[in-house]
Amino acid sequence: MRQPDIEIYLKDADHNAIGEWLSNALGSCTPWQQKGQTYKCMAGDVPVTWLPKAVGKWHSLFLESDATPWADDLTCAQAAFAALNVEVRCAPNGWEEEESDEQADRWMRISADGVEEITWRTAN
């Protein structure tokens, strides 16, 4: 089932490299507009939010649309790793407000080692 939006976390990437990748994947990326700590742009028809250091050294990339080439976070994360060669993490099945803390700590890690499920405690 297609997710309504996509959110992935990238290590050691910057929004300019992300913009180039998104331009190739989704359509021309508008210049990034900084608002506080957040950067926003449009990639094709998809609103994009980039939050540097959202979780420690990890940067959040949020695509606010279901009109992407990726059905879910994992396929987007795999494409991001292939294009950018940086470790990427995402929720295994999308995220829901009602899920338990234990479920919330389950993440998929995409790296040179492949795809694996990990425990990542993101809450303080």
Describe the structure.
The protein is of the alpha+beta class and 124 residues long. It has one domain. The chain has helices at 15-26, 73-84, 101-104; strands spanning 6-11, 33-35, 38-43, 46-55, 58-63, 88-90, 106-111, 114-119. The radius of gyration is 14 Å and the shape is globular. The model has no long low-confidence stretch (mean pLDDT 90). This is DUF551 domain-containing protein. It comes from Pseudomonas spirodelae.
Please give the structural blueprint.
Elements: E1 6-11, H1 15-26, E2 33-35, E3 38-43, E4 46-55, E5 58-63, H2 73-84, E6 88-90, H3 101-104, E7 106-111, E8 114-119
Antiparallel strand pairs: 1-5, 1-6, 2-3, 3-4, 4-5, 6-7, 7-8
Short description:
This is DUF551 domain-containing protein. Helices cover 23% and strands 37% of the residues. With 124 residues, it is an alpha+beta fold.
Notable traits:
124 residues; alpha+beta; 8-stranded antiparallel beta sheet; 3 helices; 8 strands; globular; DUF551 domain-containing protein
The profile of the biggest β sheet is: 8 strands, antiparallel
Stretches with pLDDT under 50, minimum 5 residues: none
The rounded Rg comes to 14 Å
Please give the order of strands in the largest beta sheet: 2-3-4-5-1-6-7-8
Beta-strand content: 35-45%
| Helix content range | 10-25%
Number of helices: 3
The ordered H/E elements are EHEEEEHEHEE
Class computed from helices, strands and strand pairing: alpha+beta
The overall pLDDT average reads 90
Terminal residue distance: 31 Å
Q: Domains counted in the coordinates: how many?
A: 1
Oligomeric grouping of the chains: single chain
Shape: globular
Number of strands: 8
